[in-house]
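Structure, all two chains, one model.
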Amino acid sequence: MSSLSDSLVIAQRNVLRLTRIPEMVVFGLVQPIMFVVLFSFVFGGSMMIGGSTSAAGYREFLMAGIFAQTVTFATAGAGAGIADDMHKGLIDRFRSLPMARGAVLTGRTLADLAQTTLTLGVLAVVALLVGWRIHEGIPKALLAFALLLLLGYAFSWIGALIGLTVRTPEAATSGGLIWLFPVTFVSNAFVPTENMAGWLQPIAEWNPFSATVQACRELFGNPGVSPSDAWPMEHPVAASVLWSVLIVAVFRTLAVRKYRRAE
Amino acid sequence: MPGAIYAEGLVKTFGEVRALDGVDLDVPQGTVLGLLGPNGAGKTTAVRCLTTLLRPDAGRAVVAGVDVLKHPDEVRRSIGLSGQFAAVDEYLTGRENLRMVGRLYQMGAREAKARADELLDRFRLADAADRIAKTYSGGMRRRLDLAAALVVRPPVMFMDEPTTGLDPRNRQQLWDVIQELVAGGTTLLLTTQYLEEADHLAHDIAVVDHGRVIARGTSDQLKARTGGERVEVVVHDRERIGEARSVLAGFGEGGTTYEEHTRKLTVPVSGGARLLAEVIRELDARGIEIDDIALRRPTLDDVFISLTGHAAALNGEGGGGGANGGNGGRDEAGADDRTRTAGGPGAPVPDAAAGGKWSE
């Protein structure tokens, strides 16, 4: 199947590029680590989680949120990478080759997935160092990481569409980040949704991002699992998978169509 | 039978700009067509339509026997494209670039590897094969780009201003490669704004201006349209112009023209070098001092001026800026040729795109 092999060739190209520009990987790591440290030690003592305000409790609560935020920040990378490609002569080469049409985009998102996996691995080690633990066993923890990676992969397709829509890589970076702040903050990632304004609570609970965070907390056995009876909060694993698959389906279709029509 | 590249009534508009306004082309198998025209004439748009990168608004195109609009994927198997912006990944090595392209032409890994090695040797890139392309000089990048276009030995090649921005030595080397390709039976469509290049490489020339083919023929046919040779004399002393003019009139086959600010007299002649010697002797005998004298044969530039009323390369209003390989004007239809130099006719000026290096 040429579509898959073409995508893998492009993914390999993007991974090779990352090894040639390692600072991109390093910067991708610095930010989430900084967030772990800042949130843990600045906010840590002031947050009430599961009836306690212990800083250790907040750190356990926080990690699922930071993990999820980190994987979604891959959106900006995918967008910038594709915007950059689209404005270089190389894209003409790709478009004049007998290769699968979506492969340039799929290859990019797969390479981003590889980078996200690395980032998540490093971040998990940092989290363990500041006191985060898993309490439900390795298989469930691995399932949680799989959900996180799936979410990151889904969001990189949103980034791909942004990258195809804007004119410069810089615009793709900011365009890929700006909307992530409301999406990640109006969620259960950093604070429990129960304390939010009443009208905001359902938005936070149905936020695709929240489903993954809730699923991770359950699967890691971390405190602060939302007691809400909203469907995504009661069935977070299923909700997380459904949301991610839906996002891939919608944004991949839109992005590939846009790529084909680009001139 | 239509040629290896055939186009009929191609039209492409970008907003208000009619980049292609009914272009017809026919390139017989194994020949080279030079698409000659200034910046913004529509050369690049024509190539982009024929290589499936752009969908024309109207018209029909057949490349390597396949309808471009109906079966673009099939066309892509038979063509190679090399542009003025080296379309290589600058963070990949030369070898990795060629292997990637081979794989995307659906070659197996082993075949792609062998072909990459072969091309690296052929294009004198073997020593630099494992360095990233970013470290290559402009000439090397262009060679790598051409190698990438040749990975599958395509029967039909498109080269969009292949030597724009190259220094004379690299340009000559690229010309040699092109001639070798054509000797091997490849059909080539080449765009250029250098008249000398079309003259040197192309069997047939189509002159393009404002999205239309305004003339076509062999280099000799086009030159014949502007008449024969002429003698040009720059007279040192302005007061002797009248006298010099009457001398030239005695040798000429038509009216003598005079260009005031350069003190240059021009007269159409026939008789070549022998006649030139006679003119010099006569002027000398009368003690008319001359700064310069030349027997000029018509150039394609003369052809261009006589066809369009303006000089070829001086029309580059889209030029100027220093867009360097990146997003220079890609979104703007008017700047479709994506060219930056406005160099004199036949005198390509190496520019920033060559990475500032004139040779490796």
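The radius of gyration of chain A is 19 Å.
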